[in-house]
Amino acid sequence: MAIHIALAKGRIHKAVMKYLQESGYEFPTYSEDSRKLIFEDSKSMLKVTLVKSPDVAVYVERGAADVGIVGEDVLVEEASGAAVYEVLDLGIGRCRMAVAGIAGKKVDMTRRITIGTKYPRIARQYFEQNHHSVDIIKLNGSVELAPLVGLSDVIVDIVETGNTLKANGLEVLQYFMDFSARMICNPVSFKIKYSEIQQLMKVIQQKELEV
Ligand SMILES: Nc1ncnc2c1ncn2[C@@H]1O[C@H](COP(=O)(O)OP(=O)(O)OP(=O)(O)O)[C@@H](O)[C@H]1O
Ligand SMILES: O=P(O)(O)OC[C@H]1O[C@H](OP(=O)(O)OP(=O)(O)O)[C@H](O)[C@@H]1O
């Protein structure tokens, strides 16, 4: 039985597709820059769909995909309570959630501060736990701009190399969570396609993926 994988578009899908191809799966119609969203391998063992990160768990929970591969940051932020199994840490897409601000500029945490972020739920939880009152501004990307143009005091965002912060004159004030890409699985698929899913996990675990 073929397995349907919902892959989070972006870094993760590029790394996983590259790896599947290197592991012997051929996807005749796949190329990184294609606009196509569904790809099947030549032996009809895998069907891959490219899905926006926050939607991966929706596809898997509803059985529209058997498994999904997505960043843990997205799973935590969406906190959908989706009835899916988390079956594998792929060890790729490693990054850390951080509070960052303008380098060298002190932030007065005793007053109400404004946070720019793609992760409003994670940011709110972090500051509430630390008893800070905050205004959260939800952004959809290029979050580093927010403090530079006076939109927010600080940002909450993922950091990997730190190059984006550095290039924009920002610095980490506090790291507070670690993330990596995860494989999730529909519980019914996990039973019905057990051996196929185990085989896929084995293939993916065989090599250190790079993202
Ligand atoms: N700089 C990074 N280094 C490593 N992993 C990252 C980095 N940025 C994001 N990730 C991980 O890869 C996942 C996909 O991120 P990516 O930015 O490629 O996708 P995206 O769909 O374009 O996201 P967005 O639309 O929010 O920019 C993230 O959810 C996170 O888990
Ligand atoms: O620490 P670094 O290695 O520099 O990586 C961190 C950057 O990567 C992500 O952005 P992304 O590339 O997804 O762009 P975005 O601003 O459109 O979200 C993240 O939001 C940071 O901006």
UniProtKB/TrEMBL annotation:
Gene3D superfamilies: Periplasmic binding protein-like II. InterPro entries: ATP_PRibTrfase_cat (IPR013820), ATP_PRibTrfase_CS (IPR018198), ATP_PRibTrfase_HisG (IPR001348), ATP_PRibTrfase_HisG_short (IPR024893). GO terms for cellular component: cytoplasm. GO terms for molecular function: ATP binding; ATP phosphoribosyltransferase activity. Residues 53-205 form the ATP phosphoribosyltransferase catalytic domain. Pathway: Amino-acid biosynthesis; L-histidine biosynthesis; L-histidine from 5-phospho-alpha-D-ribose 1-diphosphate: step 1/9. Keywords: Amino-acid biosynthesis, ATP-binding, Cytoplasm, Glycosyltransferase, Histidine biosynthesis, Nucleotide-binding, Transferase. CDD domains: PBP2_HisGs (cd13595). It catalyses: 1-(5-phospho-beta-D-ribosyl)-ATP + diphosphate = 5-phospho-alpha-D-ribose 1-diphosphate + ATP. Its main location: cytoplasm. Its EC number is 2.4.2.17. It is found in: Cytoplasm. GO terms for biological process: L-histidine biosynthetic process. Lacks the C-terminal regulatory region which is replaced by HisZ. Belongs to the ATP phosphoribosyltransferase family. Short subfamily. NCBIfam families: hisG. Catalyzes the condensation of ATP and 5-phosphoribose 1-diphosphate to form N'-(5'-phosphoribosyl)-ATP (PR-ATP). Has a crucial role in the pathway because the rate of histidine biosynthesis seems to be controlled primarily by regulation of HisG enzymatic activity. Heteromultimer composed of HisG and HisZ subunits. This is ATP phosphoribosyltransferase. It comes from Megasphaera cerevisiae DSM 20462.
